[in-house]
């Protein structure tokens, strides 16, 4: 699946807005997507470093309009925690040489509210 197919839309609630300060962003995702798929999609779409992904299945609710009864669709929610302080990491290669990672990541997802 393409990253655009995995991430459907952001979930904007009071609780999710408070979690943005901690680096946690909430998305509605495809039901078939795994945590690894979600992490890779967020990294590619927003150029951020994903630390952790939590997922839940949200069940559809029973609804009633007059005499007609029905059910809303169930969906999958993903809470993605990103690295808010990306730094270069230094590690030792074979032979004792120091190597730094050269990837530059964003510290937040720009335009999250206006997706």
Overview features:
Alpha-Beta Plaits, 36% strand, alpha+beta, single chain, 19% helix, 115 residues, 3 helices, two-stranded antiparallel ribbon
Total discrete domains: 1
Q: What would you call the structural class?
A: alpha+beta
Count of individual beta strands: 8
What spatial form do the alpha-carbon principal axes imply?
A: elongated
Beta content comes to: 35-45%
The span between the termini is 20 Å
- Count of alpha/pi helices: 3
SSE order, as H and E? HEHEHEEEEEE
Residue share in helices? Answer: 10-25%
CATH class: Alpha Beta
Largest sheet: 4 strands, antiparallel
From the 3D structure, determine the CATH topology.
Answer: Alpha-Beta Plaits
Could you name the ranges where pLDDT drops below 50 across 5 or more consecutive residues? none
Rounded Rg? 18 Å
Superfamily (CATH H level) name: RRM (RNA recognition motif) domain
CATH architecture: 2-Layer Sandwich
Strand line-up across the major sheet: 1-2-6-3
Mean pLDDT: 89
Walkthrough of the structure:
With 115 residues, the protein is an alpha+beta fold. It has one domain: RRM (RNA recognition motif) domain (Alpha-Beta Plaits, 2-Layer Sandwich), CATH 3.30.70. It is built from three helices and eight strands, in the order αβαβαββββββ. Strands 1-2-6-3 form a four-stranded antiparallel sheet. The chain is elongated, with a radius of gyration of 18 Å. The model has no long low-confidence stretch (mean pLDDT 89).
Brief account:
Helix content is 19%, strand content 36%.
């Amino acid at each position: 699946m393409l990253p655009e197919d995995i991430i459907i839309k952001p979930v904007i609630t009071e609780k999710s807005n408070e979690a943005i300060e901690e680096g946690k962003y909430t998305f509605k995702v495809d039901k078939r997507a795994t945590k690894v798929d979600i992490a890779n999609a967020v990294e590619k779409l927003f150029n951020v470093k994903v630390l952790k992904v939590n997922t839940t299945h949200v069940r559809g609710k029973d609804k009633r309009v007059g005499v007609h009864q029905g059910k809303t669709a169930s969906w999958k929610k993903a809470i993605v925690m990103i690295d808010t302080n990306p730094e270069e990491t230094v590690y030792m290669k074979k032979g004792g040489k120091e190597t730094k990672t050269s990837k530059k990541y964003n510290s937040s997802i720009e335009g999250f509210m206006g997706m």
